[in-house]
Design a protein that fits this description.
The structure holds two protein chains of two kinds. By secondary structure, chain A is an alpha/beta fold. Chain A is built from eight helices and nine strands. In chain A, β8 and β9 form a beta hairpin. Chain A is globular and about 55 Å long. The chains are: A alpha/beta, B mainly alpha.
């Protein structure tokens, strides 16, 4: 997939975006229970019954990302990194405020997503292409290049369940990195274990990141953030605590949150 | 506003037909990939069901076998279509959790997928009428044309069921069980295993006030060579309108919450 050389209108705008949802207990999950609660009214104390807990995963976030930004997200587990990534990718819709996304988006959070173990390698390449919104012809056109890159040879005509873990990783990596989206979202930078394949894979990944107009990655690895990003953001409990220079953000995080 | 959101999502879902087309075909293919008969297992198991029930219940109800098996070969696949769509509806989004957390498909694509899967299975089941009708020497006649609008009504039924119960089923995890029980009970009071005429006058009300019976009748009668009754179509029309009247606002209002409920 190609993109236009200049894409000045690629952008992501968050306007007071909030993601607040409820985690229900087993009791809160029951329609029968909900109807009974309604009919018996005030007999059960509201709030204290453990039916639902409200979680504010993103709290009133205002943010604009424009072409050229390579943003790293830093924060502890549960800080809202994954939620923000999903919101930036257009997967989560905010429950308050607005998110406007201009441009084609690819989110690489789970490489194996959408792989059918019973289908052959070739069929899986085609499937992924269709899931990413390509026409049948264009999805079919993806196959030769990806097949070639994986060096899997005749295995590509066998069901994926016969593959070794390394082979599966090669295929899913090659498929995931075959497109050139305007906006690229990653949850940790993917690594491909296999030594011989490594150099080739890294070159391909770098090319993909370079060609994206907007790149956002969440990582616990400072080196990754340093290597790929030109801006970093510290998240804590759904709030942006810091947004700016990579080194400054890492320092802020180390000082205020890492061991807190 | 909520209704507009829901309609837009349905429209976007329809435009993403390639996605639910490949989702359905891979789902069915992987189920039968390792068997020689492939998807015609659907046909075979329906044939066994129809013949088995035909002989046993035909004897129990003292029905002429030929007519009874003809009736079953038409009524059973239609019943399977309606009841499976009802039973599948609450899980449409639950089963699509992985895809929904990864791609930005319009969520209604998974409702379309559920409808297409069931229509595909229905197509494999209903072909049974061909050998059976040939064997018993029964023709189809003009009323068969009235089957096409019935098919459209089934698609619409699957759509509001999927939108409404898919949303409710994601929030309330006992909805699938509740609907499964309802469908199970409906089976006994819907003329699938017996012809409506067999029911005594004082029990006719279980057909006249049964939405499943009306849905079944509009598709069954045309295939049996009869024009469908206006009263059945009126009933189906009302249920469909009420269904959408409930489904569109609820889906439109809660669509964005579905992912957070998973």
């Amino acid at each position: 997939m190609t993109h236009s050389a200049a894409a000045p209108d690629v952008s992501i705008i968050l306007d007071k975006a909030t993601v607040e949802y409820q985690l229900f207990s087993a009791r809160g999950r029951s329609l029968k229970g909900a109807l009974l609660r309604r009919t018996v009214g005030g007999q059960i104390k509201a709030g204290g019954d453990g039916i639902a807990t409200s979680v504010k995963a993103l709290d009133n976030i205002t943010l604009t990302l424009r072409p050229g930004v390579k943003l790293g997200l830093i924060g502890r587990n549960g800080a809202g990194k994954t939620t923000l990534l999903r919101a930036l990718a257009g997967i989560y819709e905010p429950t308050g405020g607005r998110i406007i996304i201009n441009g084609t988006t690819a989110s690489m959070t789970d490489l194996m997503m959408g792989m059918d173990m019973e289908a052959t390698g070739r069929e899986n390449i085609f499937l992924r292409g269709v899931f990413l919104g390509l026409s049948f012809e264009r999805a079919r056109a993806l196959v030769p290049e990806i097949a070639d890159f994986t060096e899997l040879g005749e295995y590509l005509d066998l069901p994926m369940r016969t593959y070794s873990a390394g082979m599966m990783l090669r295929l899913s990596f090659a498929v995931s990195t075959s497109l050139r989206p305007d906006i690229l979202i990653m949850d940790e930078v993917i690594g491909v274990g296999d030594q011989s394949f490594y150099a080739k894979a890294e070159a391909r990944l770098n090319e993909m990141i370079d060609s994206a107009h907007i790149f956002v990655v969440a990582s616990h690895d400072n080196d990754i953030i340093r290597r790929f990003c030109n801006r970093a953001m510290v998240l804590h409990q759904g709030h942006i605590m810091f947004d700016g220079e990579v080194e400054a953000a890492l320092a802020y995080y180390a000082e205020n949150l890492k061991n807190a | 506003m909520a209704v507009r959101t829901a309609l837009k999502d349905l429209y976007d879902g329809a435009r993403a037909w390639r996605i639910w087309y490949v989702l359905t075909t891979t789902e069915i293919k992987s189920r039968y990939r390792r068997s020689k008969l492939g998807q015609f297992w659907f046909t075979l198991s329906m044939a066994v069901t129809v013949c088995g029930i035909g002989f046993v219940y035909g004897a129990l109800f003292k029905q002429p076998y030929v007519e009874f098996i003809t009736y079953l070969a038409v009524a059973f696949p239609i019943w399977a279509l309606i009841s499976t769509m009802t039973a599948d509806a609450p899980s449409v989004f639950i089963n699509a959790e992985a895809q929904m957390k990864h791609y930005t498909f319009p969520k209604s694509a998974f409702v379309w997928q559920m409808i297409m899967r069931n229509l595909f299975i229905f197509a494999h089941n209903i072909v049974l009428v061909v050998p059976i009708f040939l064997f018993v020497g029964k023709g189809l006649g003009w009323p068969v044309l009235a089957f096409l609008p019935a098919l459209a009504a089934y698609v619409l039924t699957g759509m509001w069921l999927g939108l409404l119960f898919g949303t409710l089923g994601t929030r309330f995890r006992d909805v699938p069980q509740i609907l499964a029980s309802i469908t199970q009970m409906a089976f006994f009071v819907t003329p699938v295993l017996f012809r409506p005429a067999l029911l005594p006058e004082n029990l006719q009300f279980i057909i006249d006030h049964n939405p499943f019976a009306a849905l079944l009748a509009i598709g069954r009668d045309p295939l049996l060579g009869l024009w469908p009754r206006a009263s059945d179509w009126l009933y189906v029309g009302i249920i469909t309108l009420l269904g959408f009247a409930a489904a569109l606002p609820i889906y439109g209002r809660y669509r964005r919450h579905i992912l957070y409920w998973l």
